[in-house]
Amino acid sequence: MADAIGLLRPRTVIGPSLRAVGEWALSFDPFLHVRIGGLVRGTCWLILEGREPVLLQAGDTFMLGNPPPYVLASTPGARPRPAAQVWAGVEDGLVRIGPESEDDLYLCVGHIAFDDGNAALLTDLLPPLVIVRAADPHGLRLAQLIDHLATEVGIAAAGGPLVQNHLAQVLLVHMLRAHAGQTDWPCGWLGALNDDGIGAALRAVHADMAHSWSLQELAEISHMSRSAFAQAFKSHVGVPPLEYLIQWRMNLARDALARDTLSISELARATGYQSESAFSTAFRRVVGSSPAKFRAQARLSVAHGR
Q1: Single pTM value for the model
Q2: What three-state secondary structure class fits 124?
Q3: CA proximity to 5, closest of 154, 139, 115
């Protein structure tokens, strides 16, 4: 999970907190890649396009993966207005609808964007909506994080943006843990982490990407035969084990080349290849261009501010 989030290069924007009373509804436009939020106090309805309205209560936390248009509302029948217009009236990190009240709704929301090149590592695994209820085993910890995040948004303290960014990423990790532990496990590496055998193999691979892993080694780590391991891995993760390994190595390579952090020969060794030519051949097959050309294009994009 840490490897994936590192490759995603998350960029967090925490919106103003919302306090509202009476009848209200706000419509939100589609967003890439993840929107995350929770209720510090009160209740509201989350209405996601194409799904039944869901009632959120104090302490509940939600995560939307590549969300389509959606609405947050006091009641399902309330007529929404664009959230962007309401957000424009922010003061001291807070947007208010209706008069101040001790019984108002208190909501904190934000979004997390990723580098487009690797975003699918996570967004392809997420359903449109994940909700962790206050009564869930993870619920109390998530509610505390939302409360802390809402407090940071409302104060002009030194280092506020840094604290908000890190809290949001911690919140994302805990939401992913909660999602991976639910009854209907997600597909891909996220769900496979909960399997003792396949999860052990995944952790071993990510702990040493420079090792020349064989199918037999990974099967032994999982305490399975080669055939049983290969079948179980593909069933859990969606691709054969060695294909998964190649894809991850190329994800690491793209990231390193884009950031110009290693020479091609160093990168070949770091990703488990015995020679630069073997690495270049694998990179070209997966990515569609040579490592040198990919790095040159990345440098050009940086030079033009893209």
Answers
A1: 0.74
A2: coil
A3: 115
